[in-house]
Amino acid sequence: MTEPLIALQHVGKLFGDGLVRALSDVSFDVRPGEFISLVGPSGCGKTTLLRIINGLITPEEGSVTVMGRKPEPGPDLAMVFQSARLLPWRTVSGNIEFALALRGHDKAERRQRALALLGAVGLRDFADAFPHQLSGGMQQRVGLARALAVEPKVLLMDEPFAALDAMTREVLRRELLQMWARRRMAIVFVTHDIDEAVYLSQRIVLLRPRPGRIDEVVDVDLPEQRWEDDPRATPAFAALRNHLWDRIHAMARDGEALEELAGAFPIESIEKPER
Amino acid sequence: MSEETVRAAPGTVSVAELEARGRKRRQREGTLVLGAQILLGLGLIASMYVLNATSGKLFMPRPDDVLAQSIKLWSDGTMLKALGESLTVLVFGFLLSAVTGSLGGAILGGFRPVSRVLDPYVNALNSTPGAAFIPLIIVWFGLYTEAKVVLVWNAAFFPILINTASGIANADRELVEMGRAFGARRTTLFWNVMLPDALPSILSGLRIGAAISTVGTVIAELTMAQSGLGGLLAQAGNRFQMDKYFAVVIVLMALGTAITAGLRFAERRIGAWRVTT
Q: Are A140 and A161 in contact (CB under 8 A)?
């Protein structure tokens, strides 16, 4: 068994001086080159987990290591956000060069690499355009190119396609799969779209909300190169998605029961952490 | 059949014709606006004549007298000298406030503890009418150019400071987080994300500051040693030479307009990335 690239052990995160518990006892590993999805209803701490892995915030409980070290923002980890988050005053190529400059590449090299990456996402002709001149899908492609530019060991993606229209989303999913097949970095992909998670990933971490904790880790045993042989019509795919939906419906039922309880008793009595 | 499809269907209009229509409409609108503006200007001049005829030249000078005075003041160098004096005060005062205001604003906006400590003081000083400081400035700096520059600085400093500080403090959080996620340190974030994001706000602070600088210059020249355009204004006013007075007012009007227009132009040039083309 290979050494895990990212290891989370009993991670817990509290917000608001400990009043709100966002995560509780989350443990899972990410292997090198693995495509793993974090899935769950809103409020289950998916994005918080991603930010913890990136080192933007530190958990109060448990431990996180990325390549054996405490995570810190930097070139080994690159993030793709839900909105492209491009610097509007920089050109498309300038935005990628910004990330490269943070990695310490010299000026001439930056431009060259930026152009090469824009070629890879099909936006070479737009290198000198400003972000506002691009469509949402194109902006998201630039965001992806920026993340790839730093050649990360881990690509963190926070619902990167959620704000796009269905057609663009589909195109970008396939491009992501092809890109991952070529480069084979680890990808931690946050989404609330079950089909998307099953279609893209090798493993799915299903989270439950309030507080965010692991419900189940599901292996996705579908053949690779899924952009060629779309697995979404296969019985195996249907079985996986039905299973995940069953779990989510179960969560919703628990949630309803919890809400009834919350109406009957003061909040403090039910939100005490179980020890 | 294929030949038919090339030709426009009956009832449709060619692009060229639509363009021509649009151009015509815009031209017509432009002429209308310009015509209305000229008419309004002529109306103002006419009403000056009427007021002059009914209430005398002390109440309102005749426009042609104003023109004659303007020509005289410009040709004998009086106006040019006054303008030079005023511009010296204005430019030095404004530059001083631009430099100190934007630096101070960057510190206030970039370091939260500093702004938390200084906030009440900044607010108190900003809320005090600028004129309240005139006696103090006279005692400290005298009556001449230095004192006037200080007065202009004092007037323009706060709008620049506050706009810069709020622009930087309110820099887009998502972009700042993006920079952090890619490993940017504080200084890099400041120069490459927060400052550019605040630039539009800083520039409007500078524009407001420049407009206030013109006001401050005239007030300084009226209340301290009389000089420049403000001094000329006071001279003419005190002697009831309303034609001369109006000649100076026109120059002040043009000066203020030119400064604001210039800065607005700079704003648009620098903020070009925001304009959708």
A: yes
Torsion of CA B167, B170, B175, B176, to 10 degrees: 100
Is the C-alpha dihedral spanning A84, A90, A95, A99 positive or negative? negative
Which distant-in-sequence residues (6+ apart) come within 8 Å of B240 by Cβ?
Answer: B58
**pLDDT tens digits for range A146-168:** 998 888 889 999 999 988 888 88
Q: Determine the residue type at A210.
A: R
Looking at the domain B63-273, which fold is it?
MetI-like fold (1.10.3720)
Phi-psi map region of A21: left, alpha, beta (phi>0 left; psi -120 to 50 alpha): beta
Residue A142 contacts B, CB cutoff 8 Å: no
**A63 has which bridge partners?**
A9
Enclosing H/E stretch for A66: strand A61-66
Residue with tokens 């396609």: A161
List the domain boundaries for chain B: 3-55, 63-273
Question: Residue A80: which region, alpha, beta or left (left: phi > 0; alpha: psi -120 to 50)?
Answer: beta
Q: Do B183 and A103 touch (CB under 8 A)?
A: yes
Taking the C-alpha atoms of residue B54 and residue B47, their distance in angstroms, rounded to an integer, is 10
Q: Which residues make beta-bridge pairs with A212?
A: A23
CB A215 within 8 A of CB A45: no
- What pLDDT does residue A274 have? 41
Task: Report d(CA A105, CA A120) in Å as an integer.
Answer: 19
> Measured between alpha carbons, how far is A161 from B18 in angstroms, rounded to an integer?
39
Residues of B with CB under 8 A from a CB of A: 174-175, 177-184, 188, 192-193, 196-197, 199, 273-274, 276-277
| 3-class secondary-structure state, position A183 | helix
In terms of C-beta density within 10 A (0-12 exposed, 13-18 middle, 19 or more buried), how is residue A86 classed? buried
Q: Could you read off the pLDDT of B13-55 as tens digits, one per residue?
A: 788 888 888 899 999 999 999 999 999 999 999 999 999 999 9
Between A264 and A203, the more confident residue is A203
3-state secondary structure of B77: coil
